[in-house]
Amino acid sequence: MTEKQRQKKFFLYSVGAFLSCVALGFFVSRGFVSDLDQGVLSFVKQIRTPLLTSIMVFITNIASPISLYILSAVSFVVLVSLNKIRESFEFVAAMVFGVTIFSILKNIFDVVRPFGGITNASGFGFPSGHVTMSTIIFLIMTYVCASFFARKLYKNLYILASFFIVILIAFSRIYLDVHWLSDIFGGLFFGLSVVFLFIALSKNSKT
């Protein structure tokens, strides 16, 4: 497969992930998945403990706005230090694009969050901003930096760790009663659409 074909493939992945987010938002806003959302949240409430709650608060704060600003700045500096100048600015563009579009989507679908969250959360719920932005940051950095690992074992561990962090952040949002399961999947779909678009544009610059 040529670079041009790979670029087209990831562009199609991006479009598919975005359309999946929009389609899910349509179903959520009309209450088609409310029973599933309620069922998952009820199950999660049953496994709460004081210790686990403290851990989930710590994990969810990894993707808080302040933490995301810091992570973004550190990621930008890392990319520049690795002489990934073009990728560093594409990364910033991806972050700005992600924040802008998920904010628009929230106001389009007007999905109300669960009532009585353990942590403070304002605004509409779909798609999850924490999940969207953590997906963009960690997976783009994984894509760009994984090639620097000389040993395949370390590379695979790095990739798995990145995905694991995103999954933990996603779960923490349900656990803390500030998002529905559908909000989480909406954030994942949209975050992946931005990541795939970043990869497609990155490959385009290499052709």
Overview of the molecule:
With 207 residues, this protein is an all-alpha fold. The chain has eight helices and no strands. It has helices at 3-29, 34-46, 50-60, 65-81, 85-109, 129-145, 152-175, 181-204.
Secondary structure elements and pairings:
Elements: H1 3-29, H2 34-46, H3 50-60, H4 65-81, H5 85-109, H6 129-145, H7 152-175, H8 181-204
Helix pairs in contact: 1-8, 3-7, 4-5, 4-6, 5-6, 5-8, 6-7, 6-8
Provide the gyration radius in Å: 17 Å
Strand content: under 5%
What's the shape? globular
Counted by DSSP, the helix tally is: 8
Helix % is over 70%
In a few lines, what is going on in this structure?
With 207 residues, this protein is mainly α. It has helices spanning 3-29, 34-46, 50-60, 65-81, 85-109, 129-145, 152-175, 181-204.
Structural features:
single chain; 207 residues; mainly alpha; 8 helices
